[in-house]
Structures
1.
Amino acid sequence: MTKQERFIALVAPWAIQASRMTGGIVPPSLSIAQAALETGWGKTVDERNIYLGVKGKTGALLTTHENKDLDGDGVVEPHERVKIKARFRSYPSGLACFMDHSTLLTTDSRYLEARQASPDSIAMAYALEAAPYATDPEYAKNLESIIRKYKLKRFDAAVKQPAKPAEAESVAGPEPEPVPQAHPVTGKANVKPQESGHSTQRTWLSR
């Protein structure tokens, strides 16, 4: 099993459950692709469970990148990136992260056009880019590539199927796991949270 396959197997149940609990508006294929893009297929994930890079007024202070029109030509290019520090919401579990992300997309007025494009995850990706949801000018293109290459739409049908008993996981408390424990994607042991740490691959606007 490849790194990408392991990551998909890890987050797909969370994406499906979060989609079910928010009325199916955010298809799993979209949130799985976003998590893959944001974390570099799990490379930046630790016990803070920051899978989807949602910014907040409080949370972990991390170094990330932001795309800006550096040459003043009115066009933001993929190579026009600067480092910034921003706070990102941390979560007690991976499921809690996906739930918060789905709630954001289903309630924030900024993403009305994205909701109107549901359940087509690729159409939603382009609507999110236009919102804008991220500063990366190739954000939607990259999401579409991931969704198509890894056939992520196969998970969308699962939202309409009855939930299994094991999926009745609470989002209120942390997932029980031994300490230390190797991360299921990277194989590295979890580390103590630091004030500034992992660099996310895409910059997300303040929520």
Note: Residues 3-167 form a domain with the Lysozyme fold (CATH 1.10.530.10).
2.
Amino acid sequence: MHLNKDYTIPYNGSQVFFKNILEYFEYRGDNALESAMIGKVIKHLRENKRLSQEVLSGLANVDRSHLSKIELGLRSPTITVLYKISDALGVNASDILKAVETEAIRCTTNN
């Protein structure tokens, strides 16, 4: 999910242009926006607790590379993984989902 400032991404040797970030997420698929928001919230909570991905993944018993892909929005966590991560962060899974909803609303009203 590496977008340039003009919302272009390399695709099959050329550049694909998007009008805004939401158009990019629509291009990626229905769950792409939610995946990115969940990852953003988890990363924010992890960094606020001053935990590395390595430490959080160990506490949550989740592979570090899987956690990284969740934080980057490349993968969506299953409910089980979401609960493991939220427990390791000391928050409720519902708090993560509420933060995702708030961020999605903020993102859609600003674009």
Note: The longest strand covers residues 8-11.
